[in-house]
């Protein structure tokens, strides 16, 4: 009888479930048809959905690619291995546990009752509050910690809240708002003098690494103490009830911790999780101390206590790592298949044939890719039940897919949909994919992988690129083409043209002719901020399909290729600080540019490994401070020139044909200062005379004539001589090109006045550089040649991306000139397409630097290396840092910035003035 009743109940439940499923299916199908058109047009749901909070994160350490997590590197010198950065400190604690804080807590609670939890707590949501908290915590000897995670709408999950309790206060840290700054707590957590009390820290320790590169050193885990004490239970709820008479609703643990403001109930729960930890650890301490009397060996005074501490700190040695499978989705597929074979999947094991297994594998692969690229959890994308149902029922239409999934997601027990949305928006927006999975035409799962990543994230992808999914592209062979690939799909083609249009408008916006510095950001392909930049550089990358626009205002791009070096590979602190985006001189935050402390005319000639201090030797400066620093640097260059006897500029030129009455050689020859004239001066004068000669006041004309005459050895000159003077310094090829373009107009329109050219000292430059920009846009390089001519010798510089700079001190991307240009720039991209100097600040010096610094810089560096070796170069760098410091007296230099950086040696020790000291250092080391 009882059995019958149960059977009836079960049958009824099943019937109701199916009815419900049917109803849901009908509703869904209706909805599907109404939405079909709209959905197709709007493509991925992420384009329309209210943004997920993690998309505001800038510093993303763990993205969703298949490459392993990179841990904090404290020392540049440390090998490439992913070691625990605080291995040493933790090892020390394992050998000599530091449990003094427990005695301190014991004394504290002997006089004070620590049980009650008042109404007051501190909500930490901005940087100032966080910094204040860091101050407070660094003075504590112990505090309690807990974290809350969000994992449903995120692939790897993220920390949504950190609770910290001291003896005086409960702090709740909004780690969503403060995500990029929580790293400020790193020193406190790594400080072995400060004990951190957690309950069950195994996960928290890894989560803190994953999100913030925070590593816990000196942990007391109350759960570990329970283990040592062989407590009947080790849950926090048990400890709270036993020692504090507090009950807690652990169901709240699964709440959505992204909610803001957090409801009072959740705040209460969160506080409780950290507040009582200090009191509980004191209670456990007393018990651990008691244990020694019965069990510990004599002399081993705190045996149990030390064991609890040792086990806690062993937890800290763990390192976060992404689960990387041999083949994406493989683990989930295997588990689903074995579940079905064991008759647990509500399908008959007989249905579990090889075709079914293949379908499950494909679905799991697809789910894995889609979860990563939309930054969603696997279960949000597609439930296991849905995968089994799709695998058995084999849908043939998109509607089929939807109804199979929503039916599978009906929970028989509660008669409700398991998930809030079934099918998930990921499924609804990418139904074509799923249908494609059930076609036999695709045989190789690797193809599926490439196909989907290309379709969704490739140059014409349907889904938004983000910091989370960018690095996925590196998994497939990245083909960057300027020509968009054609799609059969009309929808995709139109999508693409909108994309192109928006990019064109972006480029148009960029083409402002005024010298504006922009707060544009350049992210690496894994979302890490590489540097700030101006718009032109962004544009340069965008035009070559080397980057994608990820933010509009201020515009920011993400590189499509892996840059050679990362700022944080070297020194994390600088990296964090430079993100502060203020001038290191005066603190100005509205505009700034990256300034090269060591002028690149020298730096480009450094041996590769000595270029590695680039994140240190690039600082942000506002325009005003930049000008000051730049002027000081230019002045110091002159000093260097005098000191080393290596002139800054190419020496004067003279026409030897004329001077010595020879007939052939036409190349200018360097001579001493007294005779001849500088090539720039010569060209400027000749150009002015050719263009404006007749209109000029006669005195000025005479002056300029004298300049040109100096070149020709003092003889009278003709218009032909003037034109020839213009060609000085060009290679024959450049000359031919120039003659073809320019010569014509000079010959035939001698009186023509270029309105761009009111000032003869700016001949050619002003108009030229504006044109140069449009030249880059249109992809022709004609006009640039004229400018290139001016770059005597500085060939290396001309291969870098546009370092829209006024001298050679504004940093190119990521501070390393060659990083980008020699990595993965697609073939066919002309490396000559480089806007060069002189176009932002109409500063006369810039022209000089174009002409002369190449040989100077090279010779200086060669001299240093020859005379003093690499130490000479290091010392040389220190001198330039000193120049900056003396020019600006900067008040906002990043912590740790140091004139002596990289030098374990004192300033001056290897000074070129004092070379004898070199020997003493070798002896000392
Ligand atoms: P707790 O410290 O116990 O509040 O847990 C911290 C975080 O771990 C929570 O915010 C959850 O995200 C996650 N978590 C722990 N246990 C579970 C569980 N059984 N189910 C879901 N999430 C959990
Ligand atoms: Zn999508
Ligand atoms: Mn908690």
From TrEMBL:
Pfam families given in the database record: DNA_pol_A_exo1
- The record lists the membrane-crossing segments as 12-33
InterPro entries registered for this protein in UniProt: 3'-5'_exonuclease_dom, HRDC-like_sf, HRDC_dom_sf, RNaseH-like_sf, RNaseH_sf, Rrp6-like
Instruction: Name the Gene3D superfamilies on file.
Output: HRDC domain, Ribonuclease H-like superfamily/Ribonuclease H
UniProt KW Membrane keyword: yes
Residue span, 3'-5' exonuclease domain: 121-289
Give UniProt keywords alphabetically: Membrane, Transmembrane, Transmembrane helix
According to UniProt, the name of this protein is 3'-5' exonuclease domain-containing protein
